[in-house]
Each structure stands twice: as C-alpha cells, then as structure tokens.
Q: What sequence folds into this?
C-alpha cells in the first residue's frame, strides 16, 4: 500500500494515472502537485490507522525510493542527490508512533444534533514501558480553536497493550464542516497523537415544495423508500406489479429490488405507457439483487427503449474493480436539479456499507444511448445516472445506492448502513427532477 504513486516532481506515475479521476474527479489530470501530495499523505495515514486497528502483525508501505520513470514512484522530491521528503513521510512518522489512538469513523455526513457511539482504539506498542494518561473525544470546528464538544477519560495500558474505548460523540446543531477527533495525552497533559476525521453537519432534508402536491406512486418491494416518503408526509400511493398506474400519479418510483423481481415483466409495459403520456419516473439501483447475467428492459420494448446490460459477477476487464465510493457529476447534470444543494465534496462516501459503497460492483451499462449525468470508476468510464426521454416523459435511472441510507439498517456490525442526509437529499432531488 498505498498504491497512490507520485514521481520526483509530484506527478502521477502510470499506475496512479489510471485511478486518478476515480478519486479526484474529471479535472484530476490538471491537479497541481501540491494537491496530489496532500491526498497521498492523507490516504497513507488513514490506511495505517486502519491496519493498526486490525491488529496486523506488520505494516509497511511499499517502495520508499525507486527508479523515477517506473510504475510506482518514491517518497521524495527532486534529484537523488538532493532528496526532499514528500509530505507523506512526516505523516508516516506520525502514524507509526508507538503510543497513539485511532478513531474508527468512515462516515462523513451527520444530522445536526446527532449523537453517534464511536470506538477509539488506543495503542501502546512500546514493549518495555506502560502508558498512563488521557484520551479525549472531541468535535472541532474547522473555523474555531474551541471544541464544540469534548469528553475525556483516563487510561492506563501495560507494555504492548491495546484497548478500545467507546464514546457518545455529540455533533453540533450548527451546520458546517468539523473534525471528529480522538486525542491521546500523557499523564502531564502533553498531547501525543491526534486522530482526526472529517465530519459535515447537515439539516434534516424535508420534502421539496414541488413534491408536496403531486402524487408519488411507488413500486417498492422492500418498503424503505415508501416508509421514508410517508415519514416526510408525501402524497404516496403504493403500486403492485400487476396493477395499473392510476391516472393522477405524477411521478413513479421504481425502488431498489423491483427490477430484479420476477414480476417486473408485468409492470414494464405500464411504465412505458405512463412515460409516453408525458409523466416522469425514477428507477433506483436497477441491478440491485440481480443474480444472473441478462439484458434489463426497464420499460416496454420498442425503438429507443431504455436497456441495461447487467452482469452480477464479471468486470469490464480484469483491471477494473467493481464497487465505487465516489460519484462525479458530468457537465450534463448542470441542466438538471438532481444535485441541487449537493456539492462534489458531498458525493465522497455515503454512510455505511463496506468501504462506504455508493455504486455496486455489478456491471450495468446502458445499451440504449442516454444522457449521462454522473460517472464513477477507473477513468470515470462507469455511467451511474442516466436520463432518457420516452415520448414526452422523462426517465431517470440511478445506480447510486440510497437503500439502507434513507431509514437505516439494523446495526449488526460496523458496515451496516446508516441514515445519510446527503443520500436522502439526493433521493428527493431525483423525484423532483423527474416531474
């Protein structure tokens, strides 16, 4: 690790070049070296903290110094006889401190006033000396030196001992950007190590004005999207696969799990006719729960009908990993309201899921041409939000995963999905934009 290599000028090597847009967006190739060096340093330290929390026997980043034109790179700037350490080296020194802490937190989106129970890992990897002092959990604003919340406990560790302490982190009621932190101090109060994770506070999304009157009709076998809309007091009607779509429906929601259901074939022609009349529809995660390779016909077959190729196991080339945790809007999305109130920064990790997964590893590519409103993946070659014109109607197809993030899942493990204010806002935006 970390497989984010920069050469002696701070520019991406060939292996990094392949993934650069995936993590830093469509303008990544024009990014200044300072931005890439900063990202490399952050990524390396985060990975070391993860590996220390996993109690691995040994942790060692790959390649400190190499042949500059190679595929990896090195951790220095300039010619070999005048080496200057890159920012990653001080981060390595800090991350490998024998006495340290690590806050286990990947989520970045929080509701104002939310309380979250989080684990802080305390490490004493000194084999000869014990550790006595304090661990402080705190929320630090990006705009103030005074923590908005803090709680401190005393700790005592034997040589080569690790401990886990849980805190109820209390996030502020003021929206904005913060850092959730864990701070280790010795018995004299000297701070030894700070583990810091970005945390952004949001208002709880409410039903947009243009969704308060229209009737939303939902084909939702799992029920989560319907429950969320009912909680927001939307004018909601639940649909059945084999029943017609009422004439007073203004927008149809095809929720996760519906397209993969064997009964979807009965609903497909009805959705096509609904769109031809000038109405709108949203299909969420059409590949969700797919278990076989197939062509997915979203509406009744015909010229220009939306068609996806779905494959639950194969990738497009062995070097293209499946799931993604970042989504990037395209210029075409500027003509739509799907990202209203949502910044590019907000589309970096949704709460919960292994690796904060936002786009599934399943292959699902459009066969029928569509307007692509967002992309992800290596070279940003994976279209994830599509807009189709069907007669006078509009069909929005989104692979961005909101399931489990509208109402949350039972918290059976660390990777269980949790309510996410950005995912909720995005879901409501999709419905409003489809009208």
A:
């Amino acid at each position: 690790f970390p497989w984010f290599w920069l050469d002696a000028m701070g520019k991406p090597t060939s292996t990094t070049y392949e993934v650069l847009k995936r993590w830093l967006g469509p303008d990544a190739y024009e990014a200044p070296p300072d931005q890439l060096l900063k990202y490399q340093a952050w990524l390396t330290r985060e990975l070391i903290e993860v590996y220390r929390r996993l109690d691995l026997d040994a942790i060692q980043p790959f390649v400190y110094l190499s042949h500059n034109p190679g595929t990896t790179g090195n951790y220095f700037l300039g010619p070999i006889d005048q080496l200057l350490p890159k920012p990653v080296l001080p981060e390595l020194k800090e991350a490998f401190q024998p006495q340290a802490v690590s806050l286990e937190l990947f989520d970045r989106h929080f509701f104002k006033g939310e309380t979250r129970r989080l684990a802080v890992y305390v490490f004493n990897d000194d084999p000869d000396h014990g550790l006595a002092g304090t661990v402080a959990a705190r929320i630090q604003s990006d705009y103030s030196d005074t923590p908005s919340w803090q709680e401190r406990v005393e700790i005592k560790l034997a040589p080569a001992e690790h401990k886990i302490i849980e805190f109820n982190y209390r996030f502020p009621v003021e929206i904005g950007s913060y850092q959730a932190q864990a701070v280790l101090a010795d018995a004299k109060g000297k701070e030894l190590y700070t583990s810091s994770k970005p945390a952004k506070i949001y208002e709880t999304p409410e039903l947009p004005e243009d969704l308060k009157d229209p009737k939303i009709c939902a084909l939702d076998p799992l029920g989560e999207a319907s429950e969320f809309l009912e909680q927001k007091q939307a004018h909601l009607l639940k649909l059945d696969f084999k029943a017609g779509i009422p004439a007073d429906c203004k927008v149809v929601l095809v929720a996760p799990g519906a397209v993969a259901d064997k009964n979807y074939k009965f609903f497909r022609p009805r959705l096509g006719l609904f769109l031809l009349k000038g109405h709108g529809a949203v299909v969420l995660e059409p590949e969700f729960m797919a278990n076989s390779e197939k062509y997915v016909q979203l509406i009744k077959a015909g010229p220009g009908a939306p068609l996806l190729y779905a494959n639950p196991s194969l990738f497009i080339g062995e070097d293209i990993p499946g799931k993604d945790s970042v989504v990037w809007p395209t210029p075409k999305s500027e003509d739509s309201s799907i990202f209203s109130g949502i910044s590019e920064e907000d589309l970096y990790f949704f709460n919960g899921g292994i690796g904060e997964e936002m786009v599934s590893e399943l292959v699902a590519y459009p066969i029928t041409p569509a307007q692509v409103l967002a992309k992800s993946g290596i070279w940003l070659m994976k279209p994830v939000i599509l807009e189709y014109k069907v007669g006078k109607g509009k069909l929005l197809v989104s692979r961005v995963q909101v399931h489990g993030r509208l109402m949350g899942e039972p918290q059976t493990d660390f990777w269980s999905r949790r309510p996410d204010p950005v995912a909720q806002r995005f879901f409501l935006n999709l419905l409003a934009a489809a009208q």
Notes: The radius of gyration is 24 Å. The first strand starts at residue 76 and ends at 77. Residues 303 and 368 are 9 Å apart (CA to CA).
